[in-house]
Amino acid sequence: MSAIRGTFKDGQIILDGPPPADWPDGARVIVEPEPADEATEEIPQGDDPESIARWLAWYESLKEFQITDDEGAEWDRMMAERKERQKAAWDDWARRIKDQVP
Asked: Residue 51: how many CB atoms within 10 A of its CB?
């Protein structure tokens, strides 16, 4: 059977999605925490010179975010479509807000 991830919150396990189709109803499961990921694990940050130097070294190690021309064009297209949808919905939004104001 395939695995599925989830999050433990308020005493319950919340799955990231529906169980895989190959899980029969009533299947027994094993639940254990995943190892902490260094990228998401919070590390206390001191304000001493060594801590600041460590943080600056980490920051300088980050790679610049880059997108291709095609990705940029696709982003611009999606934003233009979104803007047109919002402009088309503006009158309806304004009417609904007006209807809610006493």
From this structure: 13
- Alpha-helical (H) ranges within 10-48 are none
pLDDT tens profile 11-69: 888 888 887 778 888 888 888 887 776 555 566 778 889 989 988 998 999 998 899 99
Nearest to 5 by CA among 40, 41, 24, 29: 29
Q: Which residue has the higher pLDDT, 65 or 1?
A: 65
Euclidean distance between CA atoms 87 and 93, whole angstroms: 10
Partners of 15 in the beta sheet?
Answer: 6
For 60, the token pair is: 């300088």
38 Rama class: left (phi>0) / alpha (psi -120 to 50) / beta: alpha
**In the chain, alpha helices (H):** 49-61, 69-100
